[in-house]
Design a protein that fits this description.
The complex is a heterodimer of chains A (65) and B (458). By secondary structure, chain A is mostly helical. Helix content of chain A is 54%, strand content 0%. Chain A has a domain of 39 residues. The relative contact order of chain B is 0.14. Classes of the chains: A mainly alpha (65), B alpha/beta (458).
């Protein structure tokens, strides 16, 4: 199945499923945000990170162990 | 010339020697805020009696009697932070925050609260519940964000030092737009207590904004609670990444930054190496996802339905969009963080610092914060975040240093990043760069500050 980037499906469905209300202006902003971020999020999710062993309790003040 | 026009360290030294009266300095700072602030909206609140009480009780510390501005991101004992917004998503109340305690214990006087981009969610500073802050170099231009007010206040010489916060570049962008030096410390090294996300953030740090690196060292030492000793950047190994972050920038920015890198190499007797750091766009998005996810901690859908209508429509829309971000993307962002931390650790064995432009173009207009790059027209936020997010994602320190003036006499800045805990090296390198260019750019004054200084000198 092709991933959908269509804001007119994703945003109303997401808002409805969480019970979040949004007015027209907020929806316009969300549509713009979706257009900007969603393709990049799909790209991010498509990166193969199976070989990346997660840091356990990472200490961000230091180099990784 | 007013003592207020001295550097932070010169002000502190003059007070310590008895050559300057801290009470008079405070009065001068308050008067200058009244005089210059209406043009830039950098300081959103002063509290002269509280400042005088703070001064009266000030210990003989390294910043004794020196006036400082603090971003509207931390509470003070007499004032809750507003985060530049009509409403925060977290409860706030007046309190002794970490930066407040650090400044108090160093003997400093908090003279005012600095404006900021609404909810910290912008690199321009043109949106705030207090109205936009303005850039002292051109008051129709963005001062940068989110620490807009602290930067504009220092650039206009209302004070010589200010405390900002950096979660995705929020110290470095305004430092760059306003021609200042701004340090994003190693994660968890500077005072953060009292911030409404202190317990949950893995990206945000407090940091100093000052005219130059030596002042950042002094103010940073207070925020770190330890002396940031001056060292030597001799033989500096400078890594340059050939990536859109360093190449998709305005020609004048590229030219100034390349000249600065060469000047830094020559000054330190070091070397420049081209290095590779793949997946930078993924790292940028990972940082954006993580900070947006962390900011929603404890926020219910019902709470989102009760957002204050005075929060800007853009912020309301973005906050609600955050609630729809898939958990799988947040988890993937964590893995990208691990990947980039490991790659950076290896890279920072080969070089001492990474260098690239802090901002890809000079400060855009307040009314339309767009930038023209070789790849086309972008919002300033989209373009700016590419160069800043890596440091927040991985925890490394990073510094923005002024390296020139571009079109319209607007500042250009170079960013240097180093390994975890090597904040001192960044300050050393910034000082070497200042020496290399004869301190020309750190001593350049914007028109708002220049006119009066020239009049006084004449």
């Amino acid at each position: 199945m092709e991933a959908s980037e269509r804001a007119d499906e994703f945003i109303p469905a997401g808002l409805a499923s969480l019970g979040i209300e949004a007015d027209e202006v907020e929806l316009a902003v969300m549509n713009a945000a979706h257009g900007m971020f969603w393709p990049a999020i799909l790209d991010l999710l498509s990166l193969d990170t199976t070989d990346v062993v997660p840091e356990r309790n990472p200490d961000l003040s230091r180099a990784p162990q | 010339m007013s003592a207020l026009d001295l550097s932070l360290r010169e002000q502190a030294a003059a007070i310590a020697k008895g050559d300057a009266d801290p009470g008079e300095l405070l009065d001068e700072a308050l008067a200058r805020i009244e005089q210059r602030n209406p043009a830039i909206n950098a300081v959103v609140e002063t509290f002269p009696e509280r400042s005088r009480e703070m001064l009266a009780a000030a210990p003989p510390g390294p910043l004794h009697g020196v006036p400082i501005v603090v971003k509207d991101e931390w509470p003070l004992p007499w004032r809750a932070q507003r985060f530049g917004a009509a409403e925060l998503l977290a409860p706030t109340a007046p309190a002794e925050s970490g930066p407040y305690r650090a400044l108090r214990d160093a003997g400093a006087t908090i003279v005012g609260v600095g404006n900021m981009h609404e909810l910290g969610a912008g690199s321009t500073g043109n949106v705030s519940v207090y109205g936009p802050a303005r850039n002292p170099w051109d008051t129709e231009r963005c001062p940068g964000g989110s620490s807009s007010g602290p930067a504009a206040a220092v650039a206009a010489r209302l004070v010589a030092g200010a405390v900002g916060a950096d979660g995705l570049g929020s110290v470095r962008f305004p430092a760059a737009y306003c021609g200042l030096t701004g340090l994003k410390p190693t994660f968890d090294r500077s005072a953060m207590a009292g911030h409404h996300m202190a317990a949950t953030t893995t990206l945000i740090v407090s940091g100093p904004l000052c005219p130059d690196a030596a002042d950042c060292r002094l103010l940073g030492s207070a925020l770190f609670g330890e002396s940031l000793a001056a060292g030597d950047a001799a033989g500096l190994r400078i890594g340059v990444i050939r990536d859109p972050v360093s190449e998709d920038v305005a020609p004048e920015v590229r030219e100034a930054c390349e000249a600065a890198i060469e000047a830094l190499r020559a000054e330190t007797g070091g070397e420049v190496r081209e290095v590779s750091l793949p997946d930078l766009p993924a790292a940028t998005l990972a940082a954006i996802l993580l900070i947006n996810g962390e900011s929603l901690g404890g926020v219910t859908p019902e709470r989102l339905n009760r957002l204050n209508p005075e929060v800007s429509p853009i912020a309301r829309g973005f906050i609600k969009y955050r609630a729809l971000l898939p958990a799988s993307a947040i988890v993937q962002a964590g893995r990208i963080r691990t990947l980039m931390r490991r790659r950076l650790a290896a890279l920072l064995e080969e070089v001492d610092v990474l260098a690239w432009p802090t901002i890809p173009a000079v400060a855009p207009p307040l009314e339309s914060p767009l930038v023209e790059l070789p790849s086309g027209t972008h919002t300033a936020d989209q373009a700016n975040v590419r160069g800043a997010a890596l440091a927040n994602l991985t925890g490394i320190p990073s510094i923005s240093v002024p390296v020139g003036l571009g079109a319209g006499e607007l500042p250009i800045a170079l960013q240097l990043g180093a390994a975890w805990g090597r904040d001192e090296l960044l300050l050393d390198a910034a000082e070497a760069l200042e020496r290399a260019n004869g301190r020309r750019w750190v001593e350049a004054l914007p028109p708002l500050a220049r006119a009066e200084t020239e009049t006084a000198e004449a």
